[in-house]
Amino acid sequence: MKKLSARRRHPLAALVVLLFALAATGGLYAAFAPAKPAQAEGAATALSDIEEGKKLYLSGCSSCHGLNGQGSSDGPSLVGVGAAAVDFQVMTGRMPMQQQGPQAPRKPVVFTQEQSDQLGAFIASLGAGPAVPREEDYALEEGNNAMIAEGGELFRTNCSQCHNFAGEGGALPDGKFAPSLVDVDPKHIYEAMLTGPQNMPSFPDTIMPPEQKKAIVTYITGVTKDEPNPGGLGLGRLGPVSEGLFVWIFGLGFLIAAAIWIAARTPKARTK
């Protein structure tokens, strides 16, 4: 027992343990030290985007939405809307608005994508909200017939009541309207479903999973770009309203004109 105890207290054992601890510490430091500058750089970039976004916001947006995004009588609160809402509104030209009205129409874009990202970073710092979707979230899968069929069913169930079954848009009460989805960027369609701009309800991931939103985007893009008109003139694909109006104006007008022309050439009319 005495010999075993002496071996455990041998000074070399403590030295070996110390050397092993120093080597392990050095190895761990060498492995993890390079990540710290990258993290600091990323944090600095995020802070820089927020600061630049705040400058842009104060120079152009605060007059309607308030100095801190709290909203006012001229514009809603932006706290919690997220960067996705900013990207949709700014990169479709809806914001900034030219004048107050029932709805912000699509128009030429004022800001660059970089400026939009900076504005989004600042708005996101005011409160948690939907982030800008990744490209793979809305990338089209045109050859995936199962996804296209699912997207068509989802679109007819959730969207066609306002946007028309072919995505041509439609009128809403009080001067509002559902905009046309023709030639709309897939990213912006996805962001609209995610954030619910203006009169549109939102479809967050808890209500509509990302796969279903992607299916709708794929379907809309295929219908509005590649769907033919086998019956001839599409008439805006607005259904019986536009078709009936066409018949009344041109069809009935042609019959009236033909009746007048025939009556003017009867023998009785010529004797007069």
Automatic annotation (TrEMBL):
Heme c 1 binds at residues 61, 64-65. Heme c 2 binds at residues 159, 162-163. It is found in: Cell membrane. It holds the Pfam family Cytochrom_C. It is a multi-pass membrane protein. The chain crosses the membrane at residues 245-264. Its EC number is 7.1.1.8. The keyword Nuclease does not apply. Residues 1-30 form the signal peptide. GO terms for molecular function: heme binding; iron ion binding; quinol-cytochrome-c reductase activity. Residues 48-127, 146-224 form the Cytochrome c domain. The keyword Acyltransferase does not apply. PANTHER family: CBB3-TYPE CYTOCHROME C OXIDASE SUBUNIT FIXP, CYTOCHROME BC1 COMPLEX CYTOCHROME C SUBUNIT. The cytochrome bc1 complex is composed of a cytochrome b (QcrB), the Rieske iron-sulfur protein (QcrA) and a diheme cytochrome c (QcrC) subunit. This is Cytochrome bc1 complex cytochrome c subunit. It comes from Yinghuangia soli.
